[in-house]
Amino acid sequence: MSLSKHELKQAVAGVTATTAKPATIYCITPSPIGELLLFGNGQALQGLYMESQEVWPQKQPDWRWDEAPFKAVITQLREYFDRKRTSFDLPLAPVGTAFQQRVWTALLELPFGVTTSYGELATRLGDAKASRAVGLANGRNPISIIVPCHRVIGANGNLTGYGGGLERKEWLLRHEGALLL
């Protein structure tokens, strides 16, 4: 299932397979914060992970290296890192539960350079008491940077957990101007 950013915002259910699983295509691209693993189904991006990230998907025997399907992703990431892009327009297909999809959709609505807290995000989703669940879903975001989980901080303004490491979270927020230099 290939979802544009707009379609993902409307999604409330996890992606389910109705046919045979297509081959996973992947590549690794450099960035100012280290190598980035990109993978997907050839139609949409399903994962973007940073080297040494707490969760780094294990390459499976059926995965196939091919940079061509990620040309737009790589271009838009370079533009982001060069400060020429503040939002992404890519087909995304993250796999997760209905609640995770809702959280990731809400993350897509966070503007460049703007932070929010887990509690504020939970309130936007309709349940102010769900900040821990929001934090867990945020931590399971499979498309880092593009689905900007780095923009979620603690209620007290402190940087809190980030799968790519707090140094990268701080770097991304400084890059976006959300933190003073």
Beta content comes to 5-15%
Order of helices and strands: HEEEEHHEHHEH
Shape: globular
Radius of gyration: 16 Å
Let me know the number of strands: 6
Report low-confidence residues grouped into runs of 5 or more: 8-18
Helix content: 25-40%
Strand order of the largest sheet: 3-2-1-4
The helix tally amounts to: 6
Mean of the pLDDT scores? Answer: 87
Q: State the end-to-end CA separation.
A: 40 Å
Helix/strand-derived category reads alpha/beta
Describe the main β-sheet briefly.
4 strands, mixed
Characterise the protein shown here.
Helices cover 30% and strands 12% of the residues. With 181 residues, it is an alpha/beta fold. Helix 4 (118-124) crosses helix 5. The chain contains six helices and six strands; from the N terminus they run H-E-E-E-E-H-H-E-H-H-E-H. The strands form two sheets. Strands 3-2-1-4 form a four-stranded mixed β-sheet, with no helix packed on it. The chain has a two-stranded parallel ribbon with strand order 5-6.
